[in-house]
Amino acid sequence: MIAFKRTDHILINVPPGELASAKHFYQDVLGLQPIESERPFVALWFRIADIELHITEEAGGTLSGRHPAFEVEDLAEAARFLKSKAISLSYSSKIPGRERLFFRDPFGNRFELIEYD
């Protein structure tokens, strides 16, 4: 079983070359607070209430990088649980202060699980 704590963030995509337009919309039009931090890739991060909204560029395709991310109590235990159910795990670049993994449901939807240091 996975001990979920809370929704951490949601990642959405914009077409390639549209990050500046997205920044204008989310920051200037909607008034979201930008989050400045070290990221492993080009992205915009904003605060929405007690979660984050992450925005990256994606050209589209069959398997999207869009995903919700959930904070969990014990990432290693969550990984063991998912593997016991024959669910494939993937890992991405490091973000300081957090460990994470990704998996997809049978329909191709991507999920991220995070444990903070």
UniProtKB/TrEMBL annotation:
Start and end residues of each VOC domain: 6-116
SUPFAM superfamilies: Glyoxalase/Bleomycin resistance protein/Dihydroxybiphenyl dioxygenase
Pfam families reported in the protein's UniProt record: Glyoxalase (PF00903)
Gene3D superfamilies noted in UniProt: 2,3-Dihydroxybiphenyl 1,2-Dioxygenase, domain 1
Domain of life: Bacteria
The protein, known as: Phage portal protein
Species: Pelobium manganitolerans
